[in-house]
């Protein structure tokens, strides 16, 4: 059920090279194409619009600073997404909102335990439900389901173990199911 990342945008040939040469119009085109995926990712990870706006600005500033470092062997969108994820997680860390301790309950997961419920297809409901989760849990869920990161990759990004990522995913999926079940029942009776 893994969706392609919303970042998976193909850029016109030569656009990145033009930006690397410092062409303002090339940067502007890259910004316009990636503004929404970066903002959405930041909003899902931080849970706050204002903070997501800051992450978007910081990500794009870093992009301007570092575009010279980009090497074309990997897709550009993957490289930019990495910057955005790091920026968002850094903000959570600054506010001490990522738990410092390892999560002890190592949940052995059945694959159906980590499938999102059908109501998750409703973006508004999903957004409301995700906002109720703890930051680390929400971040893991989004990186895993929406962005297709593996548990090892998430562990690396968050400075945790893969088992931390797995248990957050299991816990978050269960909680999200409960929240979405309640929400969709409320909506269906309305």
UniProtKB/TrEMBL annotation:
Query: Is Transcription among the key words of this record?
Result: yes
Q: SUPFAM superfamilies per the record?
A: Sigma2 domain of RNA polymerase sigma factors, Sigma3 and sigma4 domains of RNA polymerase sigma factors
InterPro entries, sorted: RNA_pol_sigma-70-like, RNA_pol_sigma-70_dom, RNA_pol_sigma70_r2, RNA_pol_sigma70_r4_t2, RNA_pol_sigma_r2, RNA_pol_sigma_r3/r4-like, WH-like_DNA-bd_sf
> Where are the annotated coiled coils located?
none
Instruction: Show the stretches that span the lipid bilayer.
Output: none
Question: Might you name a Gene Ontology BP term for this protein?
Answer: DNA-templated transcription initiation
Q: Which residues form the RNA polymerase sigma-70 region domain?
A: 30-97
Going by the UniProt record, its keywords in alphabetical order are: Sigma factor, Transcription, Transcription regulation
Q: Which GO terms describe its molecular function?
A: DNA binding; sigma factor activity
Q: Which residues form the RNA polymerase sigma factor 70 region 4 type domain?
A: 125-176
Q: Name one Pfam family in it.
A: Sigma70_r2
Give the family from UniProt.
Belongs to the sigma-70 factor family. ECF subfamily.
PANTHER family named in the record: RNA POLYMERASE ECF-TYPE SIGMA FACTO (PTHR43133), RNA POLYMERASE SIGMA-70 FACTOR ECF SUBFAMILY (PTHR43133:SF46)
What protein does this entry describe? RNA polymerase subunit sigma-24
Q: Which organism is it from?
A: Arenimonas malthae CC-JY-1
């Amino acid at each position: 059920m893994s969706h392609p990342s919303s970042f998976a945008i193909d850029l016109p040939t030569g656009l990145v090279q033009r930006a690397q040469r410092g062409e303002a119009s090339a940067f502007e085109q890259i910004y316009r194409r990636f503004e929404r995926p970066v903002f959405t990712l930041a909003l899902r990870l931080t849970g706050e619009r204002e903070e997501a706006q800051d992450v978007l600005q910081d990500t794009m500033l870093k992009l301007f600073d570092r575009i010279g470092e980009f090497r074309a062997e990997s897709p550009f969108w993957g490289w930019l997404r990495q910057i955005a994820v790091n920026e968002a997680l850094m903000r959570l860390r600054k506010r001490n909102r990522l738990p410092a301790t390892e999560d002890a309950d190592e949940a052995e997961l059945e694959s159906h335990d980590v499938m999102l419920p059908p109501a998750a297809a409703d973006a508004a409901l999903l957004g409301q439900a995700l906002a109720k989760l703890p930051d680390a849990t929400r971040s893991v869920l989004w990186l895993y389901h929406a962005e297709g990161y593996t548990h090892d990759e998430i562990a690396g990004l968050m400075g945790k173990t893969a088992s931390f990522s797995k248990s957050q995913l299991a816990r978050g999926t269960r909680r999200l199911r409960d929240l979405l079940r309640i929400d969709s029942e409320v909506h269906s009776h309305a």
